[in-house]
Amino acid sequence: EKGGHDYFMLKEIEEQPEALSNTLRGHFADGGVVLDEQRISEQDLRDINKVFVVACGTAYHSGLLAKYAIEHWCRIPVEVELASEFRYRDPVLGRDTLVVAISQSGETADTLEAVRHARTQHARVLAISNTNGSQIPRESDAVLYTHAGPEIGVAATKTFLAQIAANYLVGLALAQARGTKYTDELEHEFAELAAMPDAVRSVLETVPQVRELATRMCDAKAVLFLGRHVGYPVALEGALKLKELAYMHAEGFAAGELKHGPIALIEDGLPVVVQMPSLKGHSQLHAKLLSNIREIQARGARTIVIAEEGDEAVRPFADELIEIPAVPTLLQPLVSTVPLQVLAAEIARHRGYDVDKPRNLAKSVTVE
Ligand code: F6R
Predict the structure, then answer these.
(1) Where are the beta strands (DSSP E) in the chain?
(2) pLDDT grade, residue 280 (50/70/90)?
(3) For residue 222, how many other CB atoms are within 10 A of its CB?
(4) What is the DSSP letter of 315?
(5) ipTM over 0.90
(6) What is the pLDDT, as a whole number, of residue 306?
(7) Which residues are marked as active site?
(8) What is the mean pLDDT of residues 210-224?
(9) Could you tell me how far CA 52 lies from the centroid of its own chain?
(10) Whose CA is nearest to atom 5 of ligand 1?
(11) Are 14 and 204 in contact (CB under 8 A)?
(12) 31, 72, 107, 183 - which has most CB atoms within 10 Å?
């Protein structure tokens, strides 16, 4: 049942191309996004002038990525907030506010309560969930289901990639409703998304390399993750995976923050995983990250670099180089997260832990 794998999580990591294509299938037709349920009028959707994304854990990290896409495509301000913080600070909500609630299980108590609070304030709620008929979709005005299939491993993997795709679909739906993108542009963005299952399939070829790398990292005291722009949520997700599975101290930072504190943590031999931005899409950021890597390497860090194929400039600074295919900037997290998932799972396995059932964690958190 584990498809020849030692544990479900590895099987689910390898199922990510299908999870993505199943999530995209049927959600785009005649030049537009098709939601699964819509109890809100096109006019109301058009009038949305503020978006809040609420979620917990890995779903929250996918939400951080939604902000880049929605602001870029729709020109609406987006705030991303941990569901457990959202309703306790009296957020400014109204009829023209859209709250996007992301929850794999559809049952997470904090996210559900955030949805309920939003509704009492007359905000519109759109749910993204992997579970048909679960509570959060039931209490929402619109629903887009990810079709990642059931996830047995407690740590979210394929549902994370599916959530990212779903968030981008919601971004396109809003752009369409608001008229900030023409049909041909929407079709172009969707076609780029539709090419991602193949890109993920190709990044899965790095699995043996990452498994081998994991054997040399399992005794590290801590691991840091650095990224910028869309690489920043990926760094947070890489760190979360390592904490929850391998019980190691791990932290993700925005690389630009290094000098404002975290660089003091760098010591001889400390592994630092760095996400390089896309060369074409973000050449300025690329140069900045190069200088960050140079700084940490000079202070003794062991650099593990995730970079696009053909990124020659980074080679001298990479003690380990994991190559990913070049894809459009907003879509890079769909490929760059994959090696981090494998790294965390394999380090956990080498440390003798149950990868599918990490201690103290539950698949669905139904208490606040
Ligand atoms: C981490 C993980 C959790 C969940 C979080 C939200 O691997 O699985 O952080 O992402 O508990 O769960 P859902 O998406 O079901 O609301």
Answers:
(1) 28-29, 32-33, 37-38, 50-55, 78-82, 97-103, 124-129, 142-145, 222-227, 249-254, 271-275, 302-308, 320-324
(2) confident
(3) 15
(4) G
(5) yes
(6) 98
(7) 363
(8) 96
(9) 17
(10) 57
(11) yes
(12) 107
For position 215, what pLDDT does the model report?
97
The pLDDT confidence band at residue 276, using thresholds 50, 70 and 90, is: very high
| First-last CA distance in the chain | 33
What is the reported pLDDT for 367? 82
Looking at residue 5, what is its pLDDT?
A: 83
Distance CA 101, CA 362 (A): 20
Write the DSSP symbol of residue 361: -
In 3D, which of 135, 99, 102, 89 has the Cα closest to residue 119?
99
* Ligand 1 mutation pick, 102, 105, 167, 366, max ligand atoms within 8 A of CB: 105
Q: Ligand 1 within 6 A of 238 CB?
A: no
Verify whether ligand 1 is closer than 6 Å to residue 156 (CB atom): yes
Rounded CA separation 312/174 (Å): 38
Residue nearest to atom 6 of ligand 1 (CA): 56
Please give the distance, rounded to the nearest whole angstrom, from the Cα atom of residue 53 to the centre of ligand 1: 15
Q: In the structure encoding, which two tokens stand for residue 160, read together?
A: 């994370």
Q: What digits encode the pLDDT tens for the residues 16-70?
A: 999 999 999 999 999 899 999 999 999 999 999 999 999 999 999 999 999 999 9
What confidence score (pLDDT) does residue 293 get? 96
For 60, residues 6+ apart whose C-beta sits below 8 A from its C-beta are: 80, 82, 83, 102
What DSSP string describes 53-80?
A: EEE-HHHHHHHHHHHHHHHHHH---EEE
Q: Does 108 sit in the ligand 1 pocket, CB within 6 Å?
A: yes
Burial code (b: 16+ CB inside 10 Å, e: under 16) for 239-253 equals: bbbbbbbbebebbbb
The predicted pLDDT at position 244 comes to 97
Tokens of 129: 């969930």
Q: Which atom of ligand 1 is nearest to the CA of 136?
A: 16
> Once rounded to an integer, what is the mean pLDDT over residues 274-282?
90
Show the tokens assigned to 145: 């289901």
> What is the model's pLDDT at position 364?
84
